[in-house]
């Protein structure tokens, strides 16, 4: 392959690279170009270099790696840029011609297949793809089941499973069956729990060499997949092969849900697939007679970056991979912009030990285990990492792992997430483990729709992580009714010192049978909610306070001793100056007030106001009916200039809903 080189006076050198043809490995082509750029004289790189990747499909057979030698200079970065609009497409999948699919004639296999579907099911030999079986789960449960992914015409295909309903919405009850009775959380020999089931469906699975069950085995905030040790059809009993981390028990009020996944006997709906790893076969129920069939099984990211400075990846689509789009470590001034990350088994991308890094204008859709993760800065010294996630649309980001697969995970100091759209997920949208961060102008919708005891924005279990501001966001349609309760913003296990201001919450949170609120504090205090609007929320403010004994027990336990005195030391500088109310924190006094404060908020059509130690006062006003929204029927919750709110709350600041969400329009 020949790359053309253009050198323009006082501008970056540009290297144009055409897309590979035929069976050429794009990773080899790109590595060759990388080495050319790496070896350019400094005089030719002084204004930076732009590597332009032409439109087309680039099939990578291994990760493209960048290291310190591939760095640019401040103000003169090395930029790898695809064609606008996602027309430069990286793939790590392997195509299988439809002509390779054969009807099933093996008598033993036909005996296991659904009779009505068997004539439509096809198989092909995948031994040439190097596909490996998943861990049998003999030692631990799996989250998620690491089976190669199958795509048809660019759409992820589902495992063969039972029940069949709810491929796109695991929050629907029909997506699951439920445990009839728990007989044992674990077995005396340390193996998995035992439970009974209704009906006779599992009797179809007794010829399978291994049966995987996915379930919410104890709590509705932790799902995992476990192999079966034994199915007793005489007693309708299933024994799991290995223990779940929390055992099989009734941890949350709702019924314990489970389903069978990746099971040949349940291959009965167009689009479903199942691998026979012993015979090295793929069994597939084609949704159509013609189309592009591909399999992703290479467990490595498209791009790996280590020790890189002053660098950018722009306008590249990365799809059909069995890992992430990119992983990075020890990065400075690295920018990821205009990427389209879709149909990935793992996350869109993660970078650790990062400073002044930016993820901007990226679109994420149909990832298995999350969106973007950034960690950076120094929590010991509270040095700001100055990292940013901005103008990203992150949807359907936890298709395979239903819990703790976040759209955004921010860690370190000073992280900012601005103007993003985060939507459509069974559990959390945001995991925030950052000091002095800012979450602002984001739209968060339709999340926490399959879980319980959870929040769309979640942080907690470490009071040294504090000083964050959650401002000018719209949270809409958050939570599900499962019993315990859900929140839009959840400060968990003693979280303190956070500010929630100028947000709009619409149908956000479910109190359940507990004391949850739209903004919920479990045990913590000194969290402030002000100048927010709550519409059709069942309870805006919720708190589960800890008594004196529980506070002292938490302070003295090894977890907090480590987090508050060893990982950082809140009794010394810079913590004491930066957070003055940490004085005396490690020696909690009896009778100490531990309140959260809600002030200057607008509460519209909410069933109750608060629970626990959430202090509200006369500057929180309650309305029954429309207080003067511009057009609530069509989702415009901005207040008219003559709204009653401004008369009753003269200091209320209008919330600029028109500025919330994406900066760059999308199709």
Description:
The protein is mainly β and 667 residues long. Helices cover 7% and strands 36% of the residues. The strands form six sheets. It has a 25-stranded mixed sheet that branches. Strands 4-7-26-28-31-34-37-40-43-46-49-52-54 form a 13-stranded parallel sheet, with no helix packed on it. The chain is globular, with a radius of gyration of 27 Å.
Q: Report the strand count.
A: 56
Poorly predicted regions: 5-9
Helical run tally: 7
In percent terms, what proportion of residues is strand? 35-45%
Assign a percent range to the helix content.
under 10%
Gross morphology: globular
- Tell me the Rg in angstroms: 27 Å
Overall pLDDT metric: 94
List keywords for this structure.
globular; 25-stranded mixed sheet; mainly beta; 13-stranded parallel sheet; 667 residues
């Amino acid at each position: 392959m020949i790359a053309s080189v253009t050198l323009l006076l006082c501008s970056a050198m540009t290297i144009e690279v055409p897309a590979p043809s035929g069976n050429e490995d794009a990773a080899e082509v790109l590595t060759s170009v990388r080495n050319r750029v790496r070896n350019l004289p400094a005089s030719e790189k002084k204004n930076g270099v732009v590597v332009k990747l032409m439109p087309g499909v680039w099939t990578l057979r291994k990760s493209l790696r960048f290291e310190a030698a591939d760095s640019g200079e401040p103000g003169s970065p090395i930029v790898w840029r695809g064609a606008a609009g996602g027309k430069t497409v990286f793939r790590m999948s392997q195509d299988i011609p439809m002509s390779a699919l054969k009807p099933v004639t093996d008598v033993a296999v036909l005996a296991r297949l659904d009779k009505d579907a068997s004539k439509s099911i096809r198989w092909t030999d995948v031994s040439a793809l190097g596909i490996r079986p998943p861990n049998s789960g003999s030692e631990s449960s799996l989250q998620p089941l690491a089976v190669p992914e199958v795509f048809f015409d660019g759409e992820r295909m589902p495992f063969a499973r039972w029940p069949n309903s709810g491929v796109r919405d695991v929050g629907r009850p029909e997506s699951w069956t439920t445990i009839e009775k728990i007989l044992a959380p674990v077995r005396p020999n340390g193996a998995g729990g035992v439970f009974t089931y209704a009906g006779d469906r599992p009797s179809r699975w007794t010829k399978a060499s291994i049966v995987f069950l996915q379930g919410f085995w104890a709590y509705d905030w932790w799902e995992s997949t476990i192999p079966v040790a034994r199915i007793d059809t005489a007693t309708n009993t299933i024994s799991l092969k290995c223990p779940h981390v929390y055992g099989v028990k009734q941890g949350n009020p709702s019924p314990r849900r489970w389903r069978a996944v990746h099971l040949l006997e349940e291959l009965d709906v167009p689009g479903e697939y199942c691998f026979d790893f012993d015979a090295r076969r793929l069994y597939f129920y084609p949704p159509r007679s013609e189309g592009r069939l591909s399999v992703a099984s290479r467990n490595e990211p498209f791009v790996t970056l280590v020790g890189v400075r002053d660098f950018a990846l722009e306008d590249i689509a990365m799809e059909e991979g069995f890992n992430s789009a990119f992983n990075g470590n020890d990065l400075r001034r690295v920018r990821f912009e205009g990427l389209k990350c879709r149909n990935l088994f793992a996350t869109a991308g993660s970078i650790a030990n990062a400073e002044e890094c930016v993820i901007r204008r990226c679109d994420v859709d149909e990832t298995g285990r999350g969106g973007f993760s950034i960690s950076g800065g120094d929590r010991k010294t509270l040095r700001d990492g100055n990292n940013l996630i901005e103008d990203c649309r992150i949807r359907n980001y936890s298709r395979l792992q239903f819990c703790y697969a976040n759209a955004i995970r921010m860690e370190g100091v000073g992280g900012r997430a601005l103007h993003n759209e985060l939507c459509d997920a069974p559990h959390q949208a945001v995991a925030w483990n950052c000091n002095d961060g800012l979450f602002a102008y984001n739209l968060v919708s339709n999340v926490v729709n399959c879980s319980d005891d959870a929040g769309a924005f979640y942080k907690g279990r470490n009071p040294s992580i504090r000083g964050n501001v959650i401002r000018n966001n719209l949270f809409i349609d958050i939570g599900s009714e499962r019993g315990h309760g859900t929140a839009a913003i959840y400060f968990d296990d003693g979280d303190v010192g956070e500010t929630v201001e100028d947000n709009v919450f619409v149908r956000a949170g479910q109190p359940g049978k507990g004391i949850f609120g739209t903004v919920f504090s479990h045990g913590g205090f000194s969290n402030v909610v002000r100048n927010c609007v709550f519409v059709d929320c069942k309870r805006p403010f919720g708190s589960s306070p800890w008594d004196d004994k529980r506070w002292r027990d938490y302070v003295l336990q090894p977890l907090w001793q480590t987090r508050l005195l060893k990982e950082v030391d809140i009794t010394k500088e810079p913590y004491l100056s930066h957070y003055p109310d940490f004085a005396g924190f490690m020696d909690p006094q009896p009778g100490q007030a531990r309140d959260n404060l809600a002030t200057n908020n607008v509460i519209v059509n909410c069933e109750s106001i608060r629970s626990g130690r959430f202090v509200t006062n006369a500057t929180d006003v309650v309305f029954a009916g429309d207080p003067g929204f511009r057009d609530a029927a069509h989702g415009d919750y901005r207040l008219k200039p003559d709204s009653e709110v401004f008369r009753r709350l003269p200091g209320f600041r209008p919330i600029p809903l028109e500025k919330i969400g994406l900066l760059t329009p999308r199709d």
